[in-house]
Amino acid sequence: MRSALLVVAAALARADDRPDVGDHAAFARYMVNRLTWATLSTISEDKEIKGYPFGNPVSIGDNATGTPYMCVSPLDASVIDLEKNARMSLTFSEAQEFVTTAACDPAGGDPENPPCSRLVLTGEFKKVDPKHEEWAVAAAALKSKHPAMDGWGCFGGGAMSSHAFFLAKLEIRQAWLINMYGGPAVVSPKDYYAADAPLPAKSAATGRAAAEATATA
């Protein structure tokens, strides 16, 4: 009972952050901002599966800009693919953080349930020039969600600097979203970036404290 109350409290604390499901561009921006990783899909260059799709988790951050930034190594299989063919997609699911909605909760929902929102961003892989002012934006976006990257050498130095990590981004050509029954919504880059930036994430601490008090009462 107590654990169920905590899940509900966390869900309620975050429900107020979610845009209206009919505001597709804002909802896509919300998902990119709230989720910390996505599945990066490429066309494989591996000789055994050359030409087939290949999916690989990648950590992302956008710092409310809408642009998904990442820190990757040229040794990574996905990056090897992207050096040959820059076309890629990033797939997000609210099931990655199911307490945002009951539709994703394994107890009664499912990742394929349309209200358990899913988003696919498709476009081209682009390196972020360390000499350009955008590099600082990308670094801030990633540091805020992935502090461990500092030790990888993503931002200079680090124990794993031999892996030559660098900052990159997805240059979006299309956003494909399902967040309710009735089929997908296709959002253009123009509409996506014109949408309001997501509100700052609300902490679930207050709701959690209230649920704990109720559980122990």
Automatic annotation (TrEMBL):
Which InterPro entries is this protein grouped with?
CREG_beta-barrel, Split_barrel_FMN-bd
Any single GO CC term annotated in Swiss-Prot or TrEMBL for this entry: extracellular space
Judging by the UniProt lineage, the source's domain of life is Eukaryota
Extent of the signal sequence? 1-15
State the Pfam families in the record. CREG_beta-barrel (PF13883)
Residues covered by the CREG-like beta-barrel domain? 19-193
Keywords, A to Z, come to: Signal
Q: Which Gene3D superfamilies match?
A: Electron Transport, Fmn-binding Protein, Chain A
Q: Which PANTHER family does UniProt cross-reference here?
A: CELLULAR REPRESSOR OF E1A-STIMULATED GENES, ISOFORM A, CREG1 PROTEIN
Name the chain's protein: CREG-like beta-barrel domain-containing protein
